[in-house]
Amino acid sequence: MQTYLDLHMDTFDIRKHVEFNQQRKAQCPHCDPEGRRRKSLSVLENGAYKCFRGCTPQQIRDALGDTSRRTLPAPTAEARAELAAPVANVLVSPQKVKAATEKLLTQSTHALRWLTDRGISAAMIEHYRLGVVRARVGDTTKASKYTHLHAIAISIPNVDGTAFYQKKRIAPWMPDGDRPDGYQAWSQYGIPATVYTTHKPDTPTQTWLCEGEWDAIMLGWAVRNSELKNDIQVSCFTCGAGNIPPSEQLEQLRGEVVVFYDLDEPGRKGATKVQAELKKRCKVATVPSNDQAANGWDVSNAIAAGLFPQFTTAAAAAETWAERKSDNPLRSRLVSNDDMLAKAPDYTDWLVDDILTADELFLLAASPRAGKSLLALTLAKAVASGGRFLGRPASQGAVIYIRCEDSDTKTKEREMKQGWEQGMPVYWLDKFKLTELEYLEELVEELGARLVVFDTLSRIRDSSISESSAEMSQLLEPLQEMCKRQRCTGLLVHHTGKVQINTIGDVDVFDTIRGSSAIRATCRGTLVLAADERNYRLCVENGWGKLDLQVLLDANTLEWRLLGNWLGPDVDLSQKDRVLNYLNQVGSAQLNQIAEATNLPKRSLYEVLKRLQCDDLVEKRGDRQAAVYVRKSIQQIQQLNSVLNCSNPDTDSDRGPIQQNNFSPSSSEKVIISPKGDQKNDHLLPPTPGDLLNKSLEPSDTNGFPIQQQFNSNSTSNSTPPLSNSTPPFAVGEKVTPKAGRFSGKPCFVESVELDGEEPGWEETSWVVTIRAESWVLSRPYPPEDLQRVE
After folding, report:
1. Looking at CB atoms within 10 Å, which of 213, 651, 655, 759 has the fewest?
2. Which of 562, 721, 609 has the alpha carbon at shortest distance from 654?
3. How big is the chain by its Cα radius of gyration, in Å?
4. 350-562: what fold?
5. Residue spans per domain, the chain
6. Is the pLDDT of residue 708 over 50?
C-alpha cells in the first residue's frame, strides 16, 4: 500500500516531528507545510501514518528532513484495514454520478470540448460515467481563502459497486494566468490506492496496464471495439506511476500483466517497480511511437496517431521479468575471455622497440648529474622525428615535456647540440602538479601525444606526500590509467642513490631507486642509469624481460648512444622475403594489409617489420593502428622496372629507351658541391641509357634483393652477363656524399666497403659502404646505390 509505513520507535517516530491532535490528525508537512488545509495526516498508536491527499511516506520524511532508507516490514491486517478505510463523505451515489454525466453532455461546453479534443466521444463519456462537478481550490480550511472551479470527474466504483469515488481533473481548459492561487491539476481527496478497470472481459489472457485514467479510458475503448475484446483487460492504478496498490487490489489484474507506461523517466521507473512487485506474471512493453514521439509520449498519443494495431506486437515483444542483480560495480567491468581475446591487439605496440611500450608509465632513474634529463631529451627527439633511440626505431608522434628544473636557455643549448630541427612536435610545460592531471589529459588527447615526460617526480608530486610513503602508489595510479586511456607512454624522471657499475653484481640496481618501493611497483617498467668515472650501463625492465645495455653520452652531440649492436629477434627469413616482395609491389601498407597479403600472423609479422626497420629496409610512418610501413627506395625500383619493361623501337639494339631522367648518376659521374647548403645536387650530370642500364644490372638493388625478384620477366635484356659482386663499388678513402636525406651534399670519405652476407640461400650478396664526415662522432652505413662520388 502506497501510504503505509510501519516505523520502529528507535529509528523514526513521526510523532517526534509532527504534533497530532486528540483524534491523531495533523497537517501534512509535504502537501500542507503552512497548515492552510484540513488535517490530512493520520497516525496509528504504533506510529504508522498516512496522508489522505496521496503523499507518500518518503515524501513526508523528506519534508521533515529525514533521509534514512531501510527495508520495512509488511503491515498488519488491522493497520491495513484502518488505513485503507475511506474518509467519510467521499463516496458518491450512482444518482449523483448520473446527474454529473448529464450535465457534462448538455451544459458544460468547455469540459465537453476538452474531452473531444482528446478523442473522448460522447459515447465514451456515458459509458465511463464521466461528469462535471465542482471542486474546491485554495485554502480549504478557511472559506475566505478558497474558491470553487468546475472539474471533470472520473467515477471509480468501490469494492461492491454500490457507490463511486470521484477523481477530479480541475478546469484543464483554464489558461495558466487565470488560475487562482493554490491551484492543483488533480483532486483525489480520500480516494484509496486501487485498480481502475476500463475493459473487463470474462476470461482475459492478459491485462494491459496503463499509467493513468485517461490512457486506460482510451485504450479500454479501443480494445472493446476490436477483435481483442474477449482476451484483453485494460486497467490502471489510481495512485499514479510511482506507487502500487496493496496486494489484494493487485489480484484484480488477471492473466499476464503487460505494462504500457509513458515514455519518460518516471514511466520507466514506475514500470520497473510494478514488475518487481508482480515478478514473473508481469512484462514491460514499449508504447508504440512514430517520428513525432517526444519525451512523455503515452498511450493516448499512440492511439491518436493511429498506432493501436501495433499494441499487440509491442505486447508480444515486451521484456520479461528477471531476478534483479545487486548493484555490483564490478559487473560492468567483467569481460569474458572470448571478448578479451577479440579486442586485444595481436602484437605489442612499442614506442621504442624492446624498450618502451606505447601505453604504459615508465620510470627513468639515475643519480644526480648522471644525465637522465639528457636521456629523456634524446628520447623526445627520437619520438618527435620518428628516428632512433639507442639504435632502436621509435614510433613518431607528438611529445609533451614537463620540465620543472632546467631553464629555457639550457634546454635550447642542448637542443642545438643534439641537432633538433624546426617544426618538431614537442611541447613544453615548466609548471605542473599531479593534481592537474585531468587538464593534462585534455592536452594529451588534443595533441595526440605519444610521449609525456615528467621531469622530475619530486617537483610534480604533492608536497604533503613523502617519496618514502606508501601513498605514492595512490598518487601515481591515475597517471598510469591516463597512459592506458590515451595510449601514450609516460616517462617519470626520478633519482637513485649513488650506484656504480662495479657494484651492480652485489646490489640490485633497481633497489637503489630513491623513495618507496610503491613508485617502481606502480610503473610498468623501469630504466636505471649506472655509472662509474668512464662507463655507463642502462638497466631496463619492462615486463618482457630485462636488458643490460652499455651506453655512452656523446660529448659533441649531448646524445646518448648504444655501444655495440642489438641482437635482433629470431625471424624466419622466408617471412622477411614475403613482406619485402609485397612492399615492392605496393610501396606502402598498414600492418593489417600486409598480414592479409602475406598470410602471416600479426605477432610474427610485427617482429619481421621491426627487423626490417633495424636493417633500414622499411620505414614506419604514423602511429598506433594508423601506422604505415614504407619500403625504402621503392620508387627507384619501380622506375627501373618501367625502363626495362618498355617496348624497344630500335630492333638493332637490345636496350629500351629512357622514359624518365630521375635516376642517380652512374659511378663514373662527378658532382660539383655548391658552397651553399641549400643548393644540394643541383649539377647532377644526366646518365646515358647505357650507363643507367649497366648500373641497373648490378647483382643486387639498393636493399640487397636478388635482381631476378625485382625485374619483370618481359625484360628485353636476354643477354645479361652473369651477376657478380667481385668488384667493390667504392674504394676506401674515396670522397662521396649521400644522394638524399639530411646529409645529402655533405662531403664524406669511405671508411670501409664490405659484403652484406646476412641473407642465406642467395647466390650473391650486396655491398655495404660505411662513410664518415669530419664532424661525425659515429660512422654511418649506406648501400652503394644511395651514394655518389664528389669532386
Report:
1. 651
2. 721
3. 43
4. Rossmann fold (3.40.50)
5. 14-84, 94-187, 195-320, 350-562, 582-631
6. no
Split at pLDDT 50, 70, 90, the class of 317 is very high
What is the CATH code of the structural domain delimited by 195-320? 3.40.1360.10
DSSP track, 80-146? HHHHHSPPTT--B-HHHHHHHHHHHHHT-HHHHHHHHHTT--HHHHHHTT-EEEEEEEE-TTSGGGE
Q: Parallel, antiparallel, or unpaired: how do β-strands 49-51 and 41-43 relate? A: antiparallel
Question: Taking the complete model, does pTM exceed 0.85, yes or no?
Answer: no
CATH of 582-631 given 1.20.144, 1.20.120, 1.10.10, 1.20.1270: 1.10.10
CA–CA separation, 188 and 165 (whole Å):
9
pLDDT given for residue 165 in this prediction: 92
Compute the half-sphere exposure of residue 668: CA atoms within 13 Å on the CB side of its CA: 7
Single-letter code of the amino acid located at 702: T
Q: Residue 575 and residue 612: Cα distance in Å, rounded? A: 11
The pLDDT tens digits for 188-241 are 888 889 999 999 999 999 999 999 999 999 999 999 999 999 999 999 999 888
Instruction: Report the alpha-carbon distance of residue 129 to residue 97 in Å, rounded.
Output: 7
- Residue that wins the pLDDT comparison between 680 and 78: 78
In the block, which residue shows the cell 461492491? 160
Q: How many helices (H) and strands (E) does the chain have?
A: 23, 34
Residue with cell 629496409: 617
